[in-house]
Amino acid sequence: MMRISIRQRLTLWYAAALLAGLGIFALAMWVSLQERLVSGVDARLAQRIQGLETALGAEAEIRDRAQLQQELAEFVREIPDGSLVQLRSTAGDVLLPTPNQQILRPSLGGTAPYTEITGGRKLRIATARLQSAGSVYDAQVAVSLDEILGVMQDFRHLLLLLIPGVLIVSCLGGYWLSSRALRPVDQITSVARSIGVHNLSQRIAVPQTGDELQRMAQTWNDVLERLDIAVKRIRQFTSDASHELRTPLALIRATAELALRRE
Predict the structure, then answer these.
(1) d(CA 192, CA 185)
(2) One-character DSSP codes across 112-127
(3) 15-48 per-position pLDDT tens digit
(4) What is the pTM of this model?
(5) How many angstroms separate the Cα of 92 from the Cα of each of 89, 96, 113, 138, 139?
(6) ∠ CA(219), CA(191), CA(204), 5° rounding?
(7) Cα Rg for the chain, rounded, in angstroms?
(8) Which of 38, 57, 116, 158 has the maximum number of C-beta atoms within 10 A of its C-beta?
């Protein structure tokens, strides 16, 4: 089974946390930017509806349908961003668009702006019911979302380029920092391995960092101190025991030698 070092686990955890943070940040930026752009389009649609209502009200006394359509077509041509405008009577008669404009599907009801794909284009559409000279009209104003889709695509490409780069650089930096932070542990381990029974008086250098490394080094030195005292006591006991047994053993040996000399 492959074992992963502490610095590698720290780097992996750091990379996972950073990736999650970058993902949340990117998602928040994506949603915020998209909502901001769409809200700007909705504001433009509301202005177009208000302008159409003003133009329709100004021509309220005109009873000729062709002249009304001509005046409204001139208003549409003056719109700078190429918005699509559609105006229908409640009977279903189309006053707008002009022949060179795309025809939108009739609205199913509701006044909130909505998005749909029409003619292969993604459009943001706003609807309103307008009144003029006792007549009621259903108005639809649409703006293409191609510009917004282009901005979002560029933003997506930017995120796809930046996030991996930031993640790689951060992981390398995290691995370097973890290696630097754990270097004193390797030094303590190396010194601890070199200490044996013959050199229990040797001590580990205590880094004055005030953190876990300092406490670990002090703990190791306390353990070595207790071991040194215990080994010294064992050696003293052995020395005393050998001294105390030397005289009886010498007496037993002398007695045995004398006994062997006799018949």
Answers:
(1) 10
(2) S-EEEEETTEEEEEEE
(3) 889 889 999 999 999 999 999 998 988 888 888 8
(4) 0.62
(5) 5, 11, 21, 9, 11
(6) 40
(7) 45
(8) 38
